[in-house]
Amino acid sequence: MSIEQVHRHLLVHLSVLTGLAVLVLILFESSFWVIPDEWNMTEMTNLNFCLLTLMELLTLGMIPLALRMMKFKAVKSHIRTRREQGLLQVGLLRSYMLCLPMILNLLFYYLFMYAAYVYMAIILFLCVFFIFPTTSRCKRELEDAEQ
């Protein structure tokens, strides 16, 4: 597998995940997909509080972990031994670490209508730009793992 193929795979996965988040936004904002009334939990409930706490911890934990992942010795070793395949695995993991909580935050926002979920989703979306896969970044991360 070449570095260009790794770049394409990472770009496609990141595009699909962010596209899925945008699709959730479009479906809910256009009222095409509506939460049934019995599911609508706009008041602060114990479930909302627990999920909000969990998502805050998950969001605050995933951001620094995903952004600093390439500095860890174990990750560098994984990339060094598996080369492009290892870079692809680590890159996919980073994408999922940021995008899955983003999608969950959007879904919880529309379920509970609590603005904190949207703020966390926006922060995660902005963090995606810091791991955006370019060919030069893929090459640089592969070279950094060799050192």
Estimate the helix proportion, in percent: over 70%
Strands, count? 0
Order of helices and strands: HHHHH
The value of Rg in angstroms is: 18 Å
- Mean pLDDT equals 89
Q: Which class best fits the helix and strand makeup?
A: mainly alpha
Q: How is the quaternary structure best described?
A: single chain
Please summarize the sheet with the most strands. none
State the end-to-end distance. Answer: 21 Å
Compute the number of helices: 5
Q: Strand-residue fraction? A: under 5%
Query: Given the C-alpha coordinates, what overall shape results?
Result: elongated
Uncertain stretches of 5 or more adjacent residues: none
What does this protein look like?
- The structure is a single chain.
- By secondary structure, the protein is mainly alpha-helical.
- Helix content is 79%, strand content 0%.
- Helix 3 (73-112) packs across helix 5.
- The radius of gyration is 18 Å and the shape is elongated.
- The two termini are 21 Å apart.
- 24% of the residues are buried.
Properties at a glance:
mainly alpha; 147 residues; 79% helix
Write the topology of this structure.
Elements: H1 3-29, H2 46-68, H3 73-112, H4 115-128, H5 135-146
Helix pairs in contact: 1-3, 2-3, 2-4, 3-4, 3-5
Brief write-up:
With 147 residues, this protein is mainly α. It is built from five helices and no strands.
